[in-house]
Design goal:
The chain is mainly alpha-helical and 128 residues long. The chain contains six helices and two strands; from the N terminus they run βααααααβ. The protein has one domain (18-127). It has a two-stranded parallel ribbon.
Amino acid sequence: MARGRRTKAKRRRAPKTLKLLGIAEAMVQGSIVTQELADVNLLQFVAGDAGPSWSVAGGGISLSEIAKRPELLATMGERLMKPDAVIGIAVKSAVANMAFRFGRKALRRPINLMNRTVFRPLALGVSL
């Protein structure tokens, strides 16, 4: 007896939602690196002196300052060459990664409930 035609397996599609916890984790990881290398958090590093409350004082380095004075990259490179700074970045990054993993597992049910009852019906394109 002849075999039936085989159908192609359905291709898996990438989710079309933006995950808020993924963005938060990326901001925490970026803030760890910019705090060690530029002495400012991620928002101050990107925004620079965007307003009176955003002033980068105390020796902090922002992207706009790097664009004006490229020699500041050497300062950041010197900070990166210190072993204690690299170890500090690695340890803080590992702890943040484990905290987000544990938090996602511990809060799996409330996260799923929020996604199912709030974000999906509103069709905002975001999820937790």
